[in-house]
Amino acid sequence: MTDFAALLRPDRGEAAHPLHLLDATLLPEWLKAHAGQRRGLVEAARFEGKAGQVLVVPGSGPYAEFEVLVGVAKLASLTPWCLAAAAEKLPEGAYRIEGDVPVGLAALGWLLAQHRLTTYKSKAEPETGPRVLLSKEPARVEELVRLAEATAQVRDLVDTPASDLGPAELERAVRDWASAAGAEVEVTKGDALAQGYPMIHAVGAAATPARAPRLIEARWGDPSHPRIAVIGKGVVFDSGGLDLKPAAGMRLMKKDMGGAAHALALARLIVAERLPVRLHLLIPAVENAVSGGAFRPGDILHSRAGLRVEIDNTDAEGRLVLGDALTRAGEEKPELVVDFATLTGAARIALGPDLPATFSNDEALAADLLEAGTEVGDPLWRLPLWDGYDEMLKSDLADLSNSADSPFAGTITAALFLRRFVPEGAAWAHLDTFAWRPVPRPGRPKGGEALGLRAVHTTIARRYRRK
């Protein structure tokens, strides 16, 4: 992984190229103060202080052979991505933001703009040397490096092809983290999975033995501390099962473990910050494949909770594995449960790629998540757990169906299905996230993306630091 700590360092007064952050309202003032050659260059380049604009001009200091003008939407409210275009375009060297500008999360974009997964390139792309940002906020450097590392891990896991990331490799990623973090790992598979977690077993039963399903659990922290559960959907590839997806719908299904990537990244942040919690990480890892052992439309599955679920659609498999994982989480009496899942296409139709559909059974938790998402530039959008739609999950033969008998409200009915398995008395949030960026943006290449991670992390950190 990229050495982010080398790209963001406390400012100790060393020589660096100045970065001037300018929005459209401040640019005229800057031009007035810099008449002459630099002003002419700005006008010739049509630099207007718009977000994403970057212009190199001759320097005026002893080290500054050049200085850089960076356009931002509004200097008073910098976004996490306002420095990303500069970090992508500038040459190797050290840089310092001029003036009394609290950079804060803007440094995150600077870091992530310099990260790419290059494992699968047969020819190495020409390397640009590191662009180092010197920070006047030394207390935040470690925090921002941790956020960059967690985000990069989500991106890299989601971008890895399913041929190289099956349930066993997902387990290895958890074990590697747990070994470094001092967490305990427990993995259930084989007969024990079939008996104890029948829905997880059924969804993964069609995969080859090398890609056998499993429930991965990790625990960390003092057992006397408040208990929280973090759950991530780990469907390493989703063919749709016997209700086979069309080619276009299957193309990106390596990303169907994006919920697991988010959950692991969140666990990483919680442990790195030593939050006073007892953390329980759960990742049901399966491949929804097609073979003679695949579960079928019309099958009725037992669940760990004791409910029987009739299968209306084998492509609604994520909620099945999450149902068993939610039940397991509840057995340890957590006060807070958060799950991440790339659960429904309906969420993307309603909200597009950038906004995770967010559900919660707790008003205070929902408000905290939305507020944190806005504050850290990781927005969420709440949808209702509308009781009136529960009837869409009725089954004539079983306790409920895994898919609604209607084309309406697919995101909501999926969340209502999960609610049946949420532990009683726990505050619960469910994020239906895309985990993917279909169009590149500065600092955010096309591919795997962490969407909702920072919002949830900020919420949890604030809650338990107070306690």
From TrEMBL:
This is Leucyl aminopeptidase. Pfam families: Peptidase_M17, Peptidase_M17_N_1. CDD domains: Peptidase_M17. Keywords: Aminopeptidase, Hydrolase, Manganese, Protease. Residues 313-320 form the Cytosol aminopeptidase domain. The keyword Hydrolase applies. InterPro entries: Leucine_aapep/pepB, Macro_dom-like, Peptidase_M17_C, Peptidase_M17_N_1. GO terms for molecular function: aminopeptidase activity. Belongs to the peptidase M17 family. It comes from Sphingomonas astaxanthinifaciens DSM 22298. SUPFAM superfamilies: Zn-dependent exopeptidases. The keyword Transcription regulation does not apply. It comes from the Bacteria.
